[in-house]
From TrEMBL:
Keywords: Signal. Residues 1-20 form the signal peptide. It comes from Flavobacterium hercynium. This is T9SS C-terminal target domain-containing protein.
Length: 430
């Protein structure tokens, strides 16, 4: 009887370990990327636009699947209006006028596609490329940490219509679900680069799920303050950061994917999968307000290079994650594969008890990384490796190529970036 009880206990432990293996990186009993994503948007044939969106939308408006809309110039949804978009609708950003959709503070976007009928924002160019058009900007009245509790999303937009921030943590700016945003992130002369999706001062009643950004010229997803829940976001081969967090945002990111290319990066300061900052300008920041706190769980970050070692030696690959001073970041049950190094901490972040409590890496799978966790401009990371390498955190280290690490990473049409069962037991050494 004792032997049977012991065997049952061992089997339960084994089953628990198997489940734990399956839980690292993006998860799902099936590949949730199927049906609604597109990894070759350059080859997608589009219909000609038959409707124009321009100027201000100040009344409740519905976009219909039977039409194809072209965004001309800066299009603002104002006056607390609701813009509703039917599943399957295609909206084309005009390249010549830098088509951009701005959901102003108090307005809403209700873009709820379906898994088999996503809503698509894309380029109107025949030869599509990153940065063809502006992007989508959603502005809300949730807290940010700038003086005065408000900010303005500048570039060449109307300052009076791009104010964000307030005190409403639970504000609702609408829904983005089963939506694709392709070839956005245009560079504006004299200004900066647009992001594919900018979410500024947005509250936690807003729904952000199953959104794919492909080939953005700027950041794929940029979060400026607010309080946000987001899941099943996909950034594919963006030129700048995949996920940027700043201005005191409180964010919970779950089950999301960032795929980088060694040959796509911004000229300014390079590009990362995740960049976590508490502010853009220290002089504009009210430090009595909340600093940035991001909790990210079941994230997969990979460089899709077939020769990662050579690309690292050539200087084409940098860190996957960057955490700046005063920011708090918790990354759990996630996969970082093919970076140099996996994580870089701001040079102003001292390695001490207070900061190690704010920056956590637990149950991680670090794979094919040239070093794991470093402080900027400091080559000796012994203290950090000793801390995060402690078995209590459950971090695992491996040197397995992408083809063996992930289920079907090089499937041209329907890639599967889930971790292959058993791979996280590959190595516990560094």
């Amino acid at each position: 009887m004792k032997k049977i009880t012991l065997l049952i206990c061992l089997l339960l432990v084994a089953a628990t370990n198997v489940n734990a293996q399956q839980e690292k990186g993006i998860i799902g009993y099936t590949n949730w990327l199927d049906n609604w994503t597109e990894f070759k948007p350059h080859k997608s044939d589009g219909r000609e636009a038959n409707q124009i969106l321009a100027g201000n939308i100040g009344v409740n408006t519905k976009l219909l699947k039977r039409n194809v809309y072209v965004l001309q110039g800066n299009v603002y949804v104002t006056n607390n209006a609701v813009l509703t978009i039917e599943p399957g609708t295609v909206i084309i950003g005009d390249s010549n006028t830098k088509g951009t959709l701005v959901i102003t503070k108090g307005a809403q976007i209700m873009a709820e596609g379906q898994e088999t009928d996503p809503i698509i924002f894309t380029s109107n160019n025949s030869m599509k490329k990153a940065g063809d058009w502006g992007g989508i900007v959603i502005l809300g009245d949730a807290p940010i940490n700038k003086f005065g509790s408000v900010g303005s999303y500048n570039l060449d937009l109307d300052p009076a219509l791009t104010v964000y921030g307030g005190n409403n943590v639970a504000s609702n700016s609408g829904i983005l679900k089963y939506v694709r945003i392709e070839f956005a992130g245009k560079k504006v002369k004299g200004f900066d680069t647009f992001n594919a999706l900018t979410v500024a001062g947005v509250g936690n009643k807003t729904i952000l799920e199953n959104v794919m950004v492909s080939y953005s010229g700027g950041d794929a997803f940029a979060f400026y303050g607010g309080d946000v829940n987001a899941s099943q976001l996909v950034s594919y081969k963006s030129s700048n950061d995949d996920f940027k967090f700043t201005q005191g945002i409180q964010c919970r990111l779950f089950n999301s994917l960032a795929v980088r290319s060694s040959y796509l990066t911004s000229n300014k300061d390079g590009s990362r999968c995740i960049e976590v900052k508490s502010y853009e300008k220290k002089s504009e920041t009210d430090f009595t307000k909340k600093s940035t706190l991001v909790t990210a769980t079941n994230i997969t970050m990979l460089n899709d290079s077939e020769n990662i070692k050579a690309d690292i030696q050539s200087g084409l690959i940098k860190e996957a994650v960057y955490v700046a001073e005063n920011a708090s970041f918790e990354l759990k049950r996630s996969v970082v594969s093919g970076f140099n190094p996996a994580v870089l901490l701001d040079s102003k972040t001292e390695v001490n008890g207070a900061n190690l409590k704010k920056i956590k890496f637990e149950e991680m799978f670090f794979n094919q990384c040239s070093g794991n966790i470093f402080t900027e401009n400091i080559a000796d990371n012994t203290d950090l490796e000793s801390w995060y390498g402690n078995t209590i955190f459950g971090n695992v280290y491996s040197k397995t190529d992408n083809k063996e690490t992930f289920v079907d990473v090089y499937n041209a049409r329907r890639p599967d970036f889930r971790l292959q069962l058993g791979k996280i037991t590959a190595s516990s050494g560094r």
